[in-house]
Specification:
This protein is mainly α. The protein contains 14 helices and two strands.
């Protein structure tokens, strides 16, 4: 479907709710997920929270824009996870249900100060909503889901292991100024890669909505520049609004970090995310960076870490069930 501007989205029947919900999830994603990228920088004192949030917002924007051109495989991998065939009107409502499930779960996690993953919430919500369509129009691709499930321990495990390696030896003494500058660069890299990963996922959902509104089950071409910019801008705005509660939970309550250990977590998380993005794997920035922080930090608070791990474990089943139930509810009125 060819939609050349945002104004045209308002005139396409059934597309406006999907567009608003997708932008809403992107806003929430920037608000609750991007803080993980700057948690170490704020916790170690390399940047104040407002300055770190502003830096992350700019880099999120750039990452989402650049990934639309250079790394479209992440968006395609999301579209491969679930089918939205059959009646396009029913499929659009099911897609709305999936996005609503992500917003509900993310809002609850923010209240509880738990850094959950909107990426995994999105994937689970899409799967649940697709199954609600039944055999005539829905279903999940087991091979695509296997890639997601394998990517989770790969990204988190790599981040944790690299952080451990980087902090295993004292290394050459560096000045405080060096660590502060390096951590700022690390935070910028993490935010850039967060935008590259998550911007692509939700851009893929927006493209799916455009296709369903045109009576097609899958997008047939690349995303237009205006759509990439719109999604990137919504995520950047959410990042600029902050997420101080989550920054404190991850960067201060879970472990003790100094400038050197904070830099190790930034480098480990960025390397892991970059590798997964180049491979086209849809992974979670939250899982990757939190695992890297846990690997680099001292005196871990296992109570906080346990509550985070529990939220990770619940994300797939809860968002999948929410997506399924919300879709069934909406489809009942069609």
């Amino acid at each position: 479907m060819s939609v050349s501007s945002l104004a045209e989205v308002l005139t396409v029947p059934g597309l406006l709710p999907v567009a608003l919900l997708t932008l809403g999830v992107l806003l929430v994603n920037g608000w609750t997920d991007a803080p993980n990228a700057i948690a170490t920088t704020v916790a170690s004192g390399a940047l104040s929270f407002p300055a770190a949030a502003a830096l992350a917002a700019v880099c999120d924007l750039l990452g989402a824009l650049l990934s639309a051109v250079f790394f479209p495989a992440v968006a395609r991998s999301v579209l491969d996870l679930a089918r939205f065939d059959g009646d396009s009107r029913a499929a659009l409502w099911a897609l709305c249900a999936a996005l609503g499930a992500v917003i509900a779960w993310s809002a609850a996690a923010w209240v509880l100060r738990i850094p959950t993953s909107e990426s995994h919430g999105l994937l689970a919500g899409l799967a649940g909503a697709s199954l609600a369509l039944g055999r005539s129009g829905g279903g999940v691709a087991l091979r695509a889901w296997l890639r997601v499930l394998l990517a989770l321990p790969l990204s988190a495990g790599t981040g944790w292991l690299l952080a451990k390696v980087l902090t295993a030896r004292p290394g050459k003494p560096r000045s405080t100024a060096f660590y502060r500058s390096a951590q700022r660069a690390g935070a910028a890299a993490m935010a850039l890669l967060h935008g590259a990963q998550d911007g692509q996922k939700f851009l893929g959902v927006f493209l799916l909505g455009l296709s369903l509104a045109a009576g097609q089950s899958r997008p047939s071409g690349p995303a237009p520049l205006w759509l990439s910019a719109l999604c990137a801008g919504a995520m950047a705005l959410g990042t600029a609004l902050g997420g101080r509660r989550i920054v404190d939970a991850v960067g201060r309550d879970m472990v003790a970090l100094d400038l050197r250990r904070g830099l190790a977590a930034d480098v480990a998380g960025a390397v892991s995310l970059l590798g997964c993005t180049l491979l086209g794997l849809p992974v979670s920035t939250t899982h990757t960076k939190t695992a890297a922080i846990l690997g680099a930090g001292q005196h871990p608070n296992w109570s906080v870490a346990g509550s985070i791990a529990l939220a990770w474990a619940l994300t797939f089943p809860v968002c999948g069930l929410l997506g399924f139930l919300c879709a069934k509810f909406l489809l009942f009125f069609l």
